[in-house]
Amino acid sequence: MSHEFGVAFYDTKSYDRHFFERSSAFGRLNARFFEFRLNANTAPTAAGARAVCVFVNDRVDRACLEQLKALGVGLIALRCAGFNNVDLGAAKALGMTVVRVPAYSPHAVAEHAVALLLTLNRKIHRAYNRVREHNFSLNGLVGFDVAGKTVGLVGTGKIGKVAARIFRGFETRVIAYDPFADEAWAQEAGVEYVDFPTLLRSSDIVSLHLPLTPQSHHLLNAESFGWMRRGAYLINTSRGKLIDTTALIEALKDGRVGGVGLDVYEEEEGVFFEDHSDHVLPDDELNLLLTFPNVLVTSHQAFLTAEALSEIVRVTTENLDRFRTGASGLDGTILG
Questions:
Q1: Whether the Cβ atoms of residue 146 and residue 118 lie closer than 8 Å to each other
Q2: Which of 111, 266, 268, 311 is catalytic?
Q3: 306-325 and 14-21 helices cross at what angle (nearest 10)?
Q4: 300 included as an active-site residue
Q5: Would you call 269 a catalytic residue per the annotation?
Q6: Domain spans, the chain
Q7: Is residue 11 within 8 Å of residue 57, measured between CB atoms?
């Protein structure tokens, strides 16, 4: 058994290590797990590794990549679908391979989006806390039937399509916006494609299921919030920077947005995945959002199911093993 292929894992938690160590291919890797994030300052800790495995908040910019290349690292393996935190231009120039896990569990993320909506709408989180204090009053817990409402899905990739099936099961009208519309799927699924302004004007519930790109950055901003149907609910399980937080706060204050469920946040780096319970958060906008009764925030946990973690591990370890042996056919290759 060879242990010559070194891999440095960054921004890891106990569950990451638990699932990776259960993988059959893991024994062929000489792995080191770091809890801190990879960036230009921490890159020297990859010494001796031929690959690094990173997550959503690791900052793999040019300065970081140049150091990794000098250390002999040839593979950047993302254990997530998004890759906006990697400078792909620099990686290409340096001749480095970048892979990701393109679809670890669309069901996990789509189901969490629906869970956020139902919890927020029916005030489950508030009712749970009340009952624990023996307060069985129903005052202030009125929600609405999801059935009969119009749900607007922004993005109809694998996750968006699963979300559409779930929402159709609630007897809703589902409309969608995607610059790469899949009309054949939409006809079969009973979904209608519309343009983005029409979706916002027509939807009682808007759920985001698209990647972060230069075009989608702050897709929800002061102008587009103005297009939303008054009192509509907004759910985001994709990327935080799809929403302009300052504009969101104003839309909540004036009632344009009736409720928000967020599993991601614009400035979540350094906040999400960590325990900050013993000190004050320096982010004033996040602190303010957390005080709103119609805002529900979870800390980027939509992916966190046993099935999704198992698939992340399977794809990532197989990619690492193939790269180790020089085999072709790496899954989710972005560059290489």
A1: yes
A2: 268
A3: 60
A4: yes
A5: no
A6: 6-104+305-335, 106-297
A7: yes
Global confidence as pTM: 0.89
Catalytic residue among 239, 311, 318, 324: 239
CA 60/CA 84 separation, integer angstroms: 9
What single-letter DSSP state applies at residue 300? S
Domain at 106-297, CATH from 3.20.20.140, 3.30.530.20, 3.40.50.720, 1.10.4030.10:
3.40.50.720
| Cα 96 from Cα 45, distance rounded (Å) | 18
CB 107, CB 122: distance < 8 Å: no
Interstrand relation of 97-99 and 333-335 (parallel, antiparallel or unpaired): antiparallel
Q: How far is CA 282 from CA 246, 267, 298, in A?
A: 16, 11, 18
pLDDT tens, position by position, 230-262: 999 999 999 999 999 999 999 999 999 999 999
- Pairwise CA distance, residues 288 & 291, whole Å: 5
Tokens representing 325 are 């042996």
